[in-house]
Write the structure tokens for this entry.
Amino acid sequence: MIPAVVVFTYLGVVLYIGIFAFRTTRQSSAEDYFLAGRSIGPTVFLLSLFGTNMTAFSILGASGHAFANGIVTFGLMASSSALIIPVCLFAIGTRLWALGKRNGFMTPVQMFRDRWECGHIGTVIFVVQAALLVPYIIIAVMGGGTVLQAITNGYVPYWLGGAIVSSVVMAYVFLGGMRGTAWVNALQTTLFLLFGTIAVFVIGSGMGGFRQAMEALLSSPATSPLLTRERVSPMYFFSYTFIPLSSIAFPHICIFCLTARNVTYFRRTIVLYPICMLLIWLPSVFLGVIANQATAVPAIEAKLEARAQLASPGTTLTPDDRARLRAQAAGDDVILRLVDGYAPLWLAALLGAAVMAAVMASDSQILALSTMFTEDVFAFYQRSSIPTGAGTRRFQDMQVLTGRVFVVIVTAVAYAIALRIPQSIFDIATQYAFAGYSSLVPLLVAALFWRHSTRWGALATTVWTATAVAGVAVIQSNIPPPPPGSSITVWSLGDLPIVTRAATGTFVWGMLPVVPMTLISALLMIVVSYATRNIAMPSDGTLKRYFAA
Amino acid sequence: MRRTAIAAVAVLYVLHQDVWFWREARPLVFGFMPIGLFYHAAFTVASAGALWLLVTFAWPTHLEEEPGASPRRRESA
């Protein structure tokens, strides 16, 4: 019960931070509520930006993926992200900050509208961005339900755990806005930076040392491939390097880039980002892998038995049985099971709070969605109907109120969806949100670095992204996953399979769909912009503001 | 040095695709860490070094100038 008490205390603390932010700041203007008045300091900027990227996916999803797939998880997502995300912050984030400061932008769509002199195309971009952000929020709700259920040994069911976590997040975002969210994220990052490494050593000691555990894993033909990457192809591994591109295109990251008081705060964040990745991901992946040897923990043993049953040749399983076994074998709660089995009670309690911190990183996404709706839809379409002078003040108040109402609506919708989707955290994140946002990166690159890009190129890129994500979703939902190790050809050219469905998702030429999605997206931006350069080039004044140097 | 910094980042991107440790778990570094995992942990530390070069020698200093209020900004103020 002690871990549950500590976790609920933690929830109380973050709720208080939201209340504190509400009481101590004015938050009377939209810029203050949504961007903390562009006044975030260097340390909070680093910790909070990193924490914003670390969600249930990185802690629970990563260890769950490593539990099933081995050490490849670190190379797939962590080390590539450690290089690519900071490079994107360097090249794109700093320019977004400068443009936001100069022009008063609060969302990426405001910048796109200004850069390409468009209105409704910006609304299309908003719709696609918002639709892609919702799955990311759902991941966090699912993570909250999973963590509270595991920590309380099932006393708090999944549905109630998700409801509690969603309510707490909603409350402090509602009250504290960006300032409260940034403070909570900084606290969360500090927590899991501190306790990740401790968890590795304590659990390793509890298991009798990692050396023996590793040797045991290596000696078994069933588990030794987990310590190499022989189960994935180099092409698949390469295609994962496109996923971290998505980070800078996520609206909550773009928007967070606008909150720094000074652009020099990016320097420290860029350099230290890989180190933070290492401190979080290495323990998560290592513990996920080593859990395969933790047969003394009954819950983990049950997962391993379910996996063995799924993989045993000659077994005929109904689709329902297969789905049940797949859910039983899923490793999203494996870290918590290890902590439960091997860590002393006091540490289990603190680690539970740290994991809960990671799970609750959906706050930034909820606030971003609220900011986007308020600025890109409400303010954009209502601004002309509001009188100047005294009306401006009333309009600011309405913006903040609209943002807060939207926070409540987004959270409630995400929770309702989370109760109905039983798919693994990792699959949802990769197939929908990450791939879609990577495919939207050409929008940012073209807007900031290519003066010949046009609004029609931007529209083509956005429509393509929406179509491609919908296509993947249709394949995923209509073609049941085949048994592990086999694949179903969805579309082929002659004998050459192009699009295939495997147990782990949809593939194009053996790569994740994110690769063709992003490349075609970039190609469309180039081709359509060239085709429309005579009818849709922005004015010289606009181009001068963006490309004066 | 600016070009060196950019080249270092590009080289690291290529080195991420380490096919040479693909099917090897041994040696176990420190007695417990498979070589493939250790390589990518070291890669992550090297990334921090390359990024330090980038922000030191290729920093977009023109962005540090305090921007003046634009017409759009004044309008919304």
Q: What stands out?
A: The longest strand of chain B covers residues 28-29. Helices of chain B lie at 2-15, 35-57, 71-76.
